[in-house]
Amino acid sequence: MNWIELAVSTTHEGVDLLGDALMEAGVAGFSVEDSAELAEFIEKDLPVWQDVDEELKEKVKTPHCRIVTYLADNDEGRKMLSLLEDVCRRVKALWPAVDFGTLEFSVRTREEDEWADAWKAFYKPFPVGERLLVKPEWETITEEQADGRIVFVSNPGMAFGSGDHSTTKLCMLALEKHVKGGETVLDVGCGSGILSIVAALLGAKKVLGVDIDPYAADVAARNAAQNNVEHICTFFAGNTLEENFTLPGSEQEFDIVLANIVADVIIPLAPRLAAWTKRGGMCVISGVLNTRIDEVRAALEKEGLTAFEQREENDWCALLLQKN
User: Fold this and answer.
1) Least C-beta-crowded within 10 Å: which of 19, 96, 141, 258?
2) DSSP state of 41
3) Where in the chain is the domain with CATH 3.30.70?
4) Nearest-angstrom CA–CA distance, 156 and 269
5) Model confidence over 207-226: pLDDT tens digits?
6) What architecture does CATH give domain 3-122?
7) Chain mean pLDDT for the chain
């Protein structure tokens, strides 16, 4: 299959709002190329032993910010492309005070093999918190380079997150702090399974991940096997907002419930997120812009969850709540 590569030019100020709108419109995933963040990553976060790719160096030289996503090169993909043009116009109208830049579309077709290699140059090992290191499957590091960290081996597959977005990092930091060993975990909107697998690597005894996209469940299962936690993690496809949705198996309450989604899904899902959280357990919410965190907190606290910690990075928020 061929793929439509869509790059939307924007600004550092507007990229988060634009990305949120694209996700709500149905884009399964995207990457952000922000020269300012790339420069900061190279300077502060890239391990000292990691060589900087020449193409990555070139990206930093010219100031730019753009969102890149891939659509199937078929009728559905072209319909989505047309829809996204309208989404960009609406976002600019909804937030007149925000500088979104040109919102210019750059479109080209990539063959499957070409696409598969295109983004790898920008996905390098990176540390998270005090104990975690995210390593792409195709990269090689030594034990000395890992520096005693728990290594999560990732191959995100088509249009799924690589773990370097603020929303995912915030959840990983919460898991690093609160998974002590032996917990049961539910990952709602699991994507490529990053958070599920990290929870298992940190010591959770049983993890269930659900995503609306069947392809995501397949990718997550492969990633779990790659990390040797397939006996702990189970993934399935389903729409958690459907009226008749139920979790498979006898486990219906969990020590930790994760939902790294968007505000417009978390709010209607609040009653189920609370019901799935054990009494005394924790619910971790992410994927929410700081402009909407108050309404998300209100919806969850209405269902009996109490917020006890809020984390922020690059205008994104994660909320940690307990069920009393």
Assistant:
1) 96
2) I
3) 3-122
4) 26
5) 999 998 887 788 889 889 99
6) 2-Layer Sandwich (3.30)
7) 84
